[in-house]
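A further point concerns the way the authors explain their paired sequence and structure data. Since the whole study asks how a given chain folds, the encoding of that fold should be made plain. A single example would do more here than another paragraph of explanation. An entry of this sort, consisting of the sequence and the corresponding backbone structure tokens, reads as follows:

_____
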Amino acid sequence: MGRIYVTGAAGFIGTNLMRELDKRGAGPLIAVDQSEPGDKAVNLSVQNYEQYLDLDSFRDLLRQGELAEDTEAILHMGACSSTTETDRDYLRDNNFLYTKELADACLEKNIRFIYASSAATYGDGSLGFSDDLDLVPRLEPLNPYGRSKQDFDLHALREGLFDRIVGLKYFNVYGPREDHKGEMRSVVHKAHGQILEKGRLGLFRSYRPEYGDGEQKRDFIYVKDAVDMTLFFLDHPEIGGLFNCGSGKSRSWLDLAHAVFAAMGRDPLIDFIEMPEEIRERYQYFTEADMGKLHRAGYENTLFSLEEGILDYVRGYLARD
């Protein structure tokens, strides 16, 4: 097997990818992340890899055309994932130009390239959540982060790259090794901490009459399933395209809350709190990945239900931590 580079290797999905690749005996594995991983450094400590490259050194290596000759694949999970980031120049460089550099290098050397897009590209969801390429030019993301991800999807579409590369639109991923993400952590992680501290959980009120408080819905996917879907495309290099990476089933915040309380062996105590005004107009009330395209590509594995995933996460990881 050839070398596999994982960018964002100290991050949430990247760390879980690295660990699963190691379990499978893939590699050698090259971890790529920021020069100072900070709170993410603990994730690197649980990985096995041949080499660690900081982001700047890796980009220099790309520009000089010095990727190792035996490179098999680059799994590009490295990006600014903050939906509240407003520095558009930073997002353009980190999320668009960096991804373009990687894609160009991989296509030139016939290296498998799989990158993280995002469900944030779907904006308010008014056009639905189909990963059909015809929909891509019509999407209007709600924030600069989503726009930066959309920009590369559009570039790949215009240049006809999706025959040879794979983009994955990750929906609401939760699971182990997301501790470093701060406000971008999943609500499962936040809820567990809040319940431990206060015995209660706060959920946002609804400001739309068709949704009750806590009945806003999301497509939640356990990170173990997200990793499995990602590696399906490593195992099938003949497949290219842009694909949703979700469960295909929307579930409410109340469903999630009850599952966390149940996993912790507690009766649910839920308060409904005001949503900050600055996000009310941009808030998504519903997401649900259309997974038909992935299934038609041959992916048939059974996913964790929301309750199963939360039980595994809470009892197998959060409680142990």
